[in-house]
Amino acid sequence: MRRSARYERMAALYDREILPIWSERFGRMILRDLTLPPRATVLDFACGTGYPALEVAKRLDGGRIVCIESCAPLAELARQKAGDLLHRQVFLRTDELGPKLVFADRVFDLVLSNLGLSEAADPPAVLREMARVTKPGGRVIVTLPLRGSFAEFFDIYREVLARSERADALGRLEEHIARNPEPEQAVGWMEGAGLRPVDLEMNSFSLLFRSSREFLFAPVIEFGPLPAWKDIAGKGEEMQEIFVQIKEAIDTYFGGRPFELSVKAGCLRGHRPTGKGSAEPQDVPRPEEVSGVSYVAEEEEKSG
What we know:
Elements lengths: L4 H27 L9 E5 L7 H6 L5 E6 L2 H11 L7 E5 L13 E7 L8 H10 L1 E12 L5 H13 L3 H11 L5 H10 L5 E12 L2 H6 L1 H4 L3 H8 L2 H18 L5 E13 L23 E2 L3 E4 L1
Parallel strand pairs: 1-2, 1-4, 2-3, 4-5, 6-8, 6-9
Antiparallel strand pairs: 5-7, 6-7
Helix pairs in contact: 5-6, 5-11, 6-10, 10-11
């Protein structure tokens, strides 16, 4: 991909405006109580501008971390931030993020991804690849938003579509909401990749916006989920009319107080078993078949 000044500015905007209030909040869950063996080999899938990969690199004792990122400007900014660690402990590749990883089986002590699954068309398939390249006894740690994230916006969107008699768009909205898994479903993805045991840490925080305009033009929304949200409504005037109604509804319901969006953050930690008879990747079980969920107490945070 040929980089342009526009994309480079977007990478800097991501690092300045989106990373602190979004990606870092998920990434801190990966770093919490993280320990690494001596000379560990780590893979970061979808490293963005280098968080939390560069923090992991500081904890390495003679090891290395390989980072892959599909967006060249983001990867270039990560290279700049790596400084003297680049090509010594930190190795960056600009590669597509699927559907198959380019690495051999059983290479890494730790495979991590901070929000990378959210960009994947088939998250269970990505997890199976992560498990494949993990050594027996190694770990896979990933973060992702869970079902219930942005519920306040989706409730308004659903109401506007129903009032406009847009059954087609309502169906697309429900499909979009379902992309964020329920906790048991997310654990099932990990177990379906052959990872045992699996722990799920859940955290919650809020994003606050003074108005509908601030909400729709905030970088974390505009350069995040907004394009997908607009696609749900259709194209051209059809889409614009729906979003005018959404804007009016937000300002009506939340007039005089901030529009608060809830985020349900999840951090999944799974181990690749050792020895004969260890679990191998399989079809993802139904949620009712999943067991062994370990829940960690939620922590409330608010973003101003």
